[in-house]
């Protein structure tokens, strides 16, 4: 880390503490004990925790928790936009990526309890908790983000930190909230309506609370935008292009190097394709490709409906407290896809095919359906169930006051996802005149009386409409060639956690030592099933793969203690032992906090953390469609990855040095942090495999790269491996003021949060080279997009019933390694919200209107399908919204 940055930041905050000056951050007065530690005794400034309360979430104007976290400066490279190019099966989900260490490196809790991960992994193989499937946003009391390694507290997965969503279970009354929002650039498309309600009542010893929310979104397709068409061009279009086979062997038209020269279909443009001419005309036609603009069929915003339900029953009986919680979520989503997928078998079309005008057998470079067929649709149906029972009991033992806590939780995530692709042997049969469900054995090619039909893939097949023309493609034949895979997956987690805590374990001169000791048992399971066609590897492009299932048991013991060294100094010690059947880990933590003055606290910590391979990374066998750089083209190809039982857990050392200041309404904090991660569990980057293979000798000959007979890349095999290391470090800044009283002019508040990533150095196991990933998109390696600066600045004003809130979200520029290091521009979005609140006949009525990205700043262009970086920016442009709430 640049020492000048770190020292200057800490020195500035120290001067603020001495002089009484400061700038800004809303804080929680409560000492945080579940997210950042279990033992009591720590103070507000001891730990690097950011708290977002319900009011802050509403003032942000962002539509849900997933969006709010995605634009939190410490979270970078999350998946919160739909992207068919990099999210094969995770559409409808939202994830967090703290410190950019990967979706699986952040532990997500709800009320301090682990949740089942999504039953599908991201395209890079990471397992994650779906933030869209937690609880209705209206039920959230606050969200705590611990920006520090936390395995000594919470076990596996907390390498980068913890996100803990805490519900408002003690709410009393009734609240109904209605919201409408949408971008103003797409003629009404993209409109979202949200209806939420909650109700709670105190029944003496019991409090019951329930909440529900429903949202419905009308999607925006790529062709409805002015920036997506043209960003996804495939050389394998419809009708396509052809290698002309010579009767005696070889090819009629060759390139200067002697390879086959592809010839464009003569009806390419008339049938909806985009010709790409590569040379002068030959006796057989024009060299080049007939391209398909598949990007226009992708959804910028998918059609989506989401229902979240939550309920809590809390009983307080003096020394004993009981909590029962239940939640259910359903997301149904459909999105656009390419009309069909390429024929990567590069089949031979016989000279006898009625559409073949070359008078030669030809090798087809194309796909069965094109522009005239419209977008194919993929559907996703996510269901998540969560049940929890918690018990707390205060008791006396050994002359001390203790609190015993136990929780039993079960959660399950299920997904049913569909995708269509042509079935390889059916396409081959139809190209040779034996297509059709009822084609009789022994019949002649194209004998329709025997149920046998030709498929004409040439341009004439899209243009001919007369059923009597032998070049006509029968609709029943087209439907017969097309198959659908239905993927069903289930992930379950059952956990039992028990602990005892005392604030007065024993006394030392500076005060009382606190102690928490506990144990946890978990059972994790994952099951994924496909149809038989997929199991048989029979699909044309997505190929297929086997079903898989597995489970494991986890057991852990943990302890934490806060020791007062002085009336102004506290030492925290923690350790956790966790056993996961195949391996175990013991992770310690040491943290020191010193109150330099009444307002200024200096803190430092060191912790070791670990992340076990997920079940997906151990047992899966998946095929995903990824945008790959092949030669000088960006092409979609299947990438097959098989899990490995030989993976080691990744381990990390995390260091933090912080300075926090709080005086009156003013707060400020600076944290310098560093993470050294060893044996990072990754899926090999298919782009890195291709780049390393081609750089070696100018051809693709790595056994992980499968080629067609004519040398085209048709599939890449990637493995889950342990990467050598990642070294990351940076500085977090947070400044805030809760409110300056301006008398009759009202009150104002302001805040700033910023994160600077100074270093993110990784050793790529495929490229076998050290990469500086900070300030890079990292398309060609296993990391994710990492702009170095992310900043959020807010200001608010309130006077009587009126309020105005403004926010600026800044993301710095970074390099695009997919496109030769081109610069991706910085992006700043300004948000504005105006609100009104009053009491009308005993009902609290609030209303607000606002705009996200008020000045309609376009997402920076990236030369990739969809035209922008979906892991960083928001391409919807200006989004207008209105919200009204009634509470009694």
Shape: elongated
The computed structural class is mainly beta
Q: How much helix, percentage-wise, in residues? A: under 10%
> What radius of gyration results from the CA coordinates?
30 Å
Q: Tally the beta strands.
A: 42
Structural summary, described in words:
By secondary structure, the chain is mainly beta. Helices cover 8% and strands 49% of the residues. It contains ten helices and 42 strands. It has a 22-stranded antiparallel barrel, surrounded by four helices. A five-stranded mixed sheet has the order 1-4-5-2-3. The N terminus is likely disordered.
Chain-wise SSE layout:
Layout: H1 3-19, E1 49-53, H2 54-60, H3 65-70, E2 106-110, E3 113-114, E4 140-146, H4 151-154, E5 161-167, E6 173-183, E7 192-202, E8 206-217, E9 220-221, E10 233-234, E11 241-244, E12 262-264, E13 274-277, E14 288-293, E15 299-301, E16 303-317, E17 320-337, E18 348-349, E19 362-365, E20 376-397, E21 400-422, H5 424-431, H6 459-463, H7 475-481, E22 482-508, E23 511-529, H8 532-535, E24 548-566, E25 569-579, E26 584-595, E27 600-611, H9 615-619, E28 621-630, E29 633-642, E30 650-663, E31 666-683, H10 686-697, E32 705-707, E33 713-741, E34 747-764, E35 769-772, E36 789-799, E37 802-811, E38 814-816, E39 822-824, E40 827-840, E41 843-852, E42 879-887
Parallel strand pairs: 2-5, 29-33
Antiparallel strand pairs: 1-4, 2-3, 4-5, 6-7, 6-42, 7-8, 8-16, 9-15, 10-14, 11-12, 11-19, 13-14, 16-17, 17-20, 18-19, 20-21, 21-22, 22-23, 23-24, 24-25, 25-26, 26-27, 27-30, 28-29, 30-31, 31-33, 32-33, 33-34, 34-35, 34-36, 36-37, 37-40, 38-39, 40-41, 41-42
């Amino acid at each position: 880390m640049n020492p000048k940055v770190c020292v200057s930041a800490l020195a500035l905050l120290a001067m603020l503490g001495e002089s009484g000056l400061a700038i800004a951050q809303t804080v929680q007065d409560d000492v945080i004990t579940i997210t950042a530690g279990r033992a009591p005794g720590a103070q507000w400034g001891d730990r690097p925790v950011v708290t977002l309360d319900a009011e802050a979430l509403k003032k942000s104007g962002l539509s849900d928790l997933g969006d709010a976290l995605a634009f939190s400066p410490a979270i970078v490279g999350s998946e919160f936009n739909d992207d068919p190019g990099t999210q094969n099966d995770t559409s409808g989900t939202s994830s967090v990526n703290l410190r950019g260490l990967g979706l699986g490196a952040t532990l997500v809790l709800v009320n301090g309890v682990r949740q089942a991960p999504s039953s599908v992994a991201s395209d890079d193989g990471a397992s994650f908790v779906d933030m869209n499937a937690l609880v209705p946003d209206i039920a959230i009391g606050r969200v705590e983000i611990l920006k520090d390694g936390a395995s000594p507290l919470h076990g596996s997965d907390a390498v980068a930190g913890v996100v803990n969503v805490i519900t408002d279970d003690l709410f009393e009354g009734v609240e109904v909230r209605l919201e409408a929002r949408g971008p103003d650039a797409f003629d009404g498309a993209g409109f979202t309506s949200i209806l939420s309600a909650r109700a709670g009542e105190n029944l003496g010893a019991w409090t019951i609370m329930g909440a529900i929310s429903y949202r419905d979104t009308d999607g925006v397709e790529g062709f409805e935008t002015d920036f997506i068409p043209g960003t996804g061009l495939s050389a394998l279009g419809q009708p396509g292009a052809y290698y002309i086979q010579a009767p005696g062997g070889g090819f009629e038209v060759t390139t200067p190097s002697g390879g086959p020269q592809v010839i464009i279909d003569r009806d390419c443009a008339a049938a909806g394709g985009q010709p790409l001419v590569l040379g002068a005309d030959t006796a057989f036609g024009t060299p080049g490709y007939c391209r398909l603009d598949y990007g226009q069929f992708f959804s910028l915003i998918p059609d989506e409906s989401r229902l979240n339900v939550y309920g809590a029953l809390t009983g307080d009986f003096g020394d004993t407290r009981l909590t029962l919680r239940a939640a259910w979520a359903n997301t149904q989503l459909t999105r656009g896809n390419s009309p069909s997928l390429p024929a990567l078998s590069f089949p031979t079309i016989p000279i006898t095919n009625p559409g073949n005008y070359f008078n030669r057998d030809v090798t087809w470079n194309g796909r069965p359906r094109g522009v005239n067929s419209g977008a194919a649709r993929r559907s996703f149906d996510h269901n998540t169930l969560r049940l929890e029972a918690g018990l707390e009991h205060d008791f006396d033992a050994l002359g001390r006051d203790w609190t015993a806590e136990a929780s039993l939780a079960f959660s399950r995530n299920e997904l049913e996802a569909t995708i269509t692709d042509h079935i390889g042997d059916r396409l081959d049969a139809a190209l040779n005149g034996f297509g059709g469900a009822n084609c009789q054995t022994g019949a002649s090619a194209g004998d329709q009386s025997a149920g046998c039909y030709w498929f004409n893939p040439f341009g004439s097949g899209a243009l001919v409409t007369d059923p009597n023309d032998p070049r006509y493609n029968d609709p029943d034949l087209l439907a017969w060639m097309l198959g659908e895979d239905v993927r069903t997956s289930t992930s379950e987690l059952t956990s039992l956690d028990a602990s005892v805590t005392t604030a007065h374990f024993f006394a030392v001169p500076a005060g009382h030592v606190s102690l928490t000791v506990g144990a946890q048992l978990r059972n994790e399971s994952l099951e994924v099933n496909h149809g038989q066609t997929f199991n048989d590897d029979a699909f044309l492009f997505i190929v297929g793969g086997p079903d898989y299932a597995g489970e494991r048991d986890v057991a852990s013991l943990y302890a934490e203690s806060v020791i007062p060294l002085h009336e102004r100094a506290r030492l925290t010690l923690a350790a956790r032992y966790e056993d996961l059947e195949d391996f175990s880990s013991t992770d310690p933590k040491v943290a020191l906090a010193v109150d330099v003055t009444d307002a200024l606290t200096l803190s430092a910590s060191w912790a070791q953390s670990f992340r076990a391979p997920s079940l997906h990374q151990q047992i899966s066998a998946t095929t995903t469609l990824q945008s790959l750089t092949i030669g000088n083209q960006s092409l979609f190809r299947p990438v097959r990855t098989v899990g490995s039982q030989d993976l080691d857990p990744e381990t990390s050392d995390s260091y933090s040095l912080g300075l926090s200041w709080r005086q009156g309404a003013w707060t400020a904090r600076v944290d310098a942090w560093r993470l050294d991660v060893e044996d990072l569990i990754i899926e090999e980057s298919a782009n890195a495999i291709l780049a390393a293979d081609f750089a070696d000798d100018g051809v693709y000959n790595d056994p992980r790269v499968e080629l067609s007979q004519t040398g085209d890349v048709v599939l890449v095999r990637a493995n889950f491996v342990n990467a050598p290391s990642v070294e990351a470090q940076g500085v977090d800044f947070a400044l805030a003021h809760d409110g300056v009283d301006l008398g009759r002019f009202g009150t104002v508040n302001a805040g700033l949060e910023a994160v600077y990533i100074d270093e993110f150095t990784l050793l790529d196991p495929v490229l076998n080279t050290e990469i500086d990933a900070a300030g890079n998109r990292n398309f060609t390696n296993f990391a994710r997009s990492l702009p170095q600066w992310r900043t959020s600045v807010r200001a608010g004003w309130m006077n009587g019933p009126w309020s105005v809130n403004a926010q600026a979200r800044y993301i710095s520029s970074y390099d695009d390694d997919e496109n030769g290091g081109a610069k991706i521009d910085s992006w700043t979005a300004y948000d504005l919200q105006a609100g009104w609140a009053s009491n009308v006949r005993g009902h609290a009525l609030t209303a607000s209107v606002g705009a996200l990205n008020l000045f309609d700043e376009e997402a920076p262009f990236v030369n990739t399908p969809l035209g922008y970086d979906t892991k960083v920016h928001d391409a919807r442009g200006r989004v207008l919204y209105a919200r009204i709430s009634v509470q009694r």
